[in-house]
Amino acid sequence: MVIILIGNYSKDQQESMLRFSSMLQTGFTLAGYSCLVWRANTIFGHLTKSTQSGFGKWLGYIDKFILYPIILKSKILFYDKEEVVFHICDHSNSIYLPYFVNRNISITCHDVLAIRGSLGFEDSYCQSSKVGKFFQQWILRNLRKAQKIISISEFTLKQLNELCASTEILKRKVIYQGFNANFSVLSKDEIDKRLDSFQLVNKRFLLCVGSSHQRKNRVMLLKMVFELGVSWDGVICFAGEKLDDKLTNIAIELNLLHRIISIVSPTHETLVALYNGCEAFIFPSYSEGFGMPLIEAQACGAPVIASSIQPMPETSGGAAIHIFPDDSKGFANAILLLQNEDYRNELIANGYKNIKRYDVKSMAINYLTFFVEN
Predict the structure, then answer these.
(1) Which domains does the chain have, with CATH numbers?
(2) What is the pTM of this model?
(3) How much helix, strand and coil, in percent to the nearest 5, is found in the chain?
(4) Which tens digits make up the pLDDT trace of 239-287?
(5) Which backbone phi and psi does 264 adopt, to 5 degrees?
(6) Is there a contact between 315 and 155 (Cβ–Cβ < 8 Å)?
(7) What are the residues facing 207 on neighbouring strands?
(8) pLDDT, tens digit, 9 for 90 and up, residues 362-373
(9) 3-class secondary structure for 99-162?
């Protein structure tokens, strides 16, 4: 059996999705299967630095939605129907499903946040432009026609089922995602070496990883530190996108700007060191499909304080302190609770147990079983 994965368009620079397809390919190859990754060809995309916004986005659309379907149809014809399994790695590429008629084809749904946002669900915290609404509803129409769907969390599957309630998808199954990179405990010397240039050596800091999107609720870290007052004297580290004006202005109002360190687009090595070195990892998100940073932190031995909104409790396996995302006093009290070494160590130990559920080998085996099930 040959497995062909339909990956994401490289020029879009969706790093997590690119790593996901590579992770699946590695897992299937180690299991002894021939596995290829197909992506939309970068043709017009070469004319721009980025296809993530402006005119460059439209050049990417030409590659993905006009040229690639033609290329894809011709490539599919070269493979015998009985000897190949196709899998679309990202639900945003469900638009390619119609080209696999009478083929063994499945798709992974990572979340339905943007789809729900396009339909007016405010709890997704994903607003859409007119063009965005068109694309998200195009994605949903094709998902509703999918015969086999893998979801990465029970929560996402529940939301998907609600959106596809009137359709008959043959198979829907939850398979937890494995780690798409190495996250592990580092020695103190290695942590200091990697964090030296960021002025974080021997410094107490809380870590927040992710974008500046509203649903990430970055402002909670400012509110919780303000709530802590003189009982906690560390700094806040935001790793990911740079601080936006709104967050900066709030930090100024709360007199906390001097206690913020922003690390824009950290390397993987830096990110692992940040997880290892932080006093606690804070994940107060309003809306997620899975919440990968939560288990990345657990794998690096960081105690986790996260939102109590699903799927965060599902992802953490209960090995985190879960607080309602608007409860700044609750988040502050959680930091104080972690000062108890016995409690802190127990939480970290339970985190190590939880991450065993996210093994790449187990994930690959579950995928392979799903592919061949009728």
Answers:
(1) 2-178+359-372 (3.40.50.2000), 188-357 (3.40.50.2000)
(2) 0.92
(3) 50, 15, 35
(4) 999 999 999 999 999 999 999 999 999 999 999 999 999 999 999 999 9
(5) -85, 130
(6) no
(7) 237, 281
(8) 999 999 999 988
(9) HHCCCCEEEEECCCHHHHHHCCCHHHCCCCCHHHHHHHHHHHHHHCCCCEEEECCHHHHHHHHH
